[in-house]
Each structure stands twice: as C-alpha cells, then as structure tokens.
Amino acid sequence: MKYFLSGLIAIGLSIAAAPSFAADARNVSVVNETGYAIKFLGFNAPDDGLDEWDNELDKVLHNQASTYVEFDEDDEGCVWNIRVDWQNYDESVLWKNVNLCKFNVLRLRYDPGTKTTSFIAE
C-alpha cells in the first residue's frame, strides 16, 4: 500500500509539472467583412520572400464568413506577411510584418470610397 500511494503521488506530480498544450499564439480567426469573396488567404514569414505562399482556404471565403488558421510547430516567429486574393478580381492585398501574437481575430474590411483594404485586429 505504501508503494501504491507513493506511485500515485509521483504520477500526480508528473501530471502537474507537464506543460499545458494551449493554442499557438499565432493561430488566428480571419473574418471577411469586405463585401467580396476571397479565393486566397496566405501567410508567410518575412524571410521567405514574397513568392512562397500556401493557400489557407479549402474553399472560397464569402463575405461575413470566417476561417481559423492554425500554425505548425515548424513555423517560427510572431511576425508574418499576409496576402489576400479576390475571387472575381486579379488583384491582391499584401500586409507585411504583421505580429500575429498580439491578437486572435483579424477582421478584413474594404472601403469602396478610398478603394483600400484594411484589417482590424482584436
């Protein structure tokens, strides 16, 4: 019985000391509030250059829809470039050096008066 209790205490201490597995600080929900459909959403590290992109979308991201972007352990750093391509237009929007560790939600907005796309970070 003495060894059994010692074993339980050891297991309890190892569980308490184990690191918690929280979501990666860079993971972000992207909400499309632009009024237009998005066909491409990409993130890349500033050191990767602007030619290497992977599309994070499985399907078109329609207006008022959202998607959750998860980063891998192999991805390093908080600062990333973000690119958006529109479904019916041959234009892209690029934001450089965005610190993803400072927010959880990225709301994409488009102002037709100034013809600029921006984001609000929450």
What tags apply to this protein structure?
single chain; 122 residues; mainly beta; four-stranded mixed sheet; disordered N terminus
Summary?
This protein is mainly beta and 122 residues long. The chain is built from one helix and seven strands, in the order H-E-E-E-E-E-E-E.
What does this structure look like?
With 122 residues, the chain is mainly β. The protein has one domain. 13% of the residues lie in helices and 38% in strands. The protein has one helix and seven strands; from the N terminus they run αβββββββ. The chain has one helix at 2-17, and strands at 28-33, 38-44, 66-69, 79-86, 92-99, 105-111, 116-121. The strands form two sheets. Strands 3-1-6-7 form a four-stranded mixed sheet, with no helix packed on it. Strands 2-4-5 form a three-stranded antiparallel sheet, with no helix packed on it. A hairpin with a 4-residue loop joins β6 and β7. The longest helix has 16 residues, at 2-17. Residues 1-22 form the signal peptide. This is Argininosuccinate lyase. Keywords: Signal. It comes from Bradyrhizobium neotropicale.
